[in-house]
Design goal:
The chain has about 250 residues and is α+β, with helices and mostly antiparallel strands. The chain contains 8 helices and 9 strands.
């Protein structure tokens, strides 16, 4: 973990207590690591990490297992992470009413996927799952389609949208479907189990919907039209612009 020089011991203890509580909740053990203060660090940041899991390899749900006829389930929708991060880092750079800005900043609380993934896998037959990070929700759809050698047909209307996302993306001139969205989970689910998976996610308070299906072919079809593959992440140019403004 990289720490800013002005982070005192009390603040660092608070950060580490948060990490410890989350790890205990998930049954995770941190076996080693390196933590130091660095001159150019402006906030606590985990630069990299390696995770090892113990269990039956056959129980792992990978992004490449989508099967023909599977239902596609999306949680939380596009640009969740981007909305929370940019409005928190640059509150003065996003032209939003104070109450809308506050709601958008709350999206940082929605960037976890582990518990949603576990709940979905326990509820039904999930053949593939993928967190929608770099390249956003659209990028995740293409990655799942490519890895399984299938086509994903998606309708935009049922895709959930978290509060504050649309307003933030409009204010920043950013395409929400192409912006990184840690916290959003894309799942391919046996169609007969889709309702059970949605119910399990609803029990967790996680917005989710069936947004399409897996079919033969390649690429992604959105609202009946072949979608173009993202060539980058829509959030990075916006981040750079806001950073330059200070």
């Amino acid at each position: 973990m990289s720490l800013p020089p002005d982070l005192d011991e009390e603040a660092f203890a608070a950060v580490w207590r948060g990490v410890d509580e989350e790890c205990r909740s998930l049954g995770v053990a941190i076996t080693t690591g390196h933590t130091a203060r660095y001159t150019d660090a402006s906030l606590p940041w985990v630069g990299s990490g390696t995770a090892f899991g113990v269990g039956d390899h056959g129980d792992i749900v990978l992004p490449d297992g989508a099967r023909l006829g599977d239902a596609l389930v999306v949680t939380k929708g596009p640009a969740v992470e981007t909305t929370g991060l940019l409005t928190t880092l640059f509150p003065d750079g996003v032209d939003l009413p104070p109450e809308t800005l506050a709601v958008a900043q709350e999206r940082l609380e929605d960037t976890g996927v582990v518990r949603d993934a576990l709940a979905a896998a326990d509820a039904g037959s999930v053949s593939a799952m993928h967190d929608a990070t770099e390249g956003g929700l659209l990028g995740a759809l293409f990655e799942m389609a490519d890895s399984a050698g299938v086509r994903l047909a998606v309708d935009s209307d049922p895709v959930p949208t978290m509060p504050g996302v649309t307003e933030t993306c409009t204010a920043l001139g950013m395409n929400p479907w192409r912006a990184t969205t840690g916290g959003t989970l894309l799942l391919a689910v046996d169609a007969k189990d889709a309702d059970a998976v949605l119910a399990a996610l609803d029990d967790r308070g996680t917005p989710a919907a069936v947004v399409g299906h897996v079919e033969s072919g390649e690429g992604v079809v959105r609202d009946g039209t072949a979608a173009s593959r993202p060539t980058g992440d829509a959030s990075w140019p916006v981040y750079e612009r806001l950073l330059e403004r200070g």
